[in-house]
Specification:
Order of helices and strands: HHHH
Number of domains: 1
Largest sheet: none
Number of helices: 4
InterPro entries: MTCL1-3
Strand content: under 5%
Keywords: Coiled coil
Shape: rod-shaped
């Protein structure tokens, strides 16, 4: 029965390893860098195009490119904000899990010391207490996961709204371009 508790503790620590959290943070950071690179490529393309256009077409193209660059800038900032918030939540979750594992380890050590010299009834009560504490820790972890999911969903809604706004501005520019001639 003690081996079962030790195996459970090892399984819990493998599920939420720190390296998994770091890998997820690294992926989000790379995504933000990619958007920044796209922004720089668009800036370079704008310089090449501006040399070939007439002055009137040049002004219209600059206006379109400016809005496109603003759009990419908004996307980059949105990804930066999302990455920053996710990183903060992951760090908090990691710290919470480390504290929970440390507490569980200390309680398990204490339990094992007392189990050797206690009666069978004492052992049963201690196991029930430990089981209740494990349930509470699991519930706390689930609540943290739900909070993270809600925050992420909120960012997705904001991101979708910004994309919609960008699309509307782009369509408006296309109309201005078509009818502006």
């Amino acid at each position: 029965m003690v081996q079962w508790l030790v195996d459970g503790l090892h399984s819990l620590s493998r599920l939420m390893s720190h390296s998994d959290l770091q890998a997820q943070l690294s992926t989000e950071k790379e995504s933000a860098r990619g958007t920044q690179e796209e922004l720089e490529k668009e800036r370079q393309n704008q310089k090449k195009i501006s040399l070939r256009l007439s002055q009137e077409e040049h002004q219209k193209a600059l206006l379109r490119r400016d809005f496109q660059l603003q759009s990419l800038g908004l996307q980059a900032r949105l990804q930066q904000r999302l990455w920053s918030q996710e990183r903060t939540l992951l760090v908090q979750e990691s710290q919470h899990l480390k504290q929970a594992l440390l507490l569980l380890s200390l309680k398990l050590r204490c339990f094992l010391k007392h189990a050797v010299s206690s009666t069978l009834a004492d052992l049963k009560v201690a196991l029930q207490d430990l089981s209740a504490e494990l349930r509470q820790e699991r519930q706390g972890s689930q609540e943290l996961t739900q909070q993270f999911a809600k925050a992420k969903a909120s960012w997705e809604v904001e991101r979708t709204e910004l994309k919609s706004l960008i699309m509307q501005v782009t369509k408006l520019l296309q109309i201005v371009y078509v009818y502006g001639d």
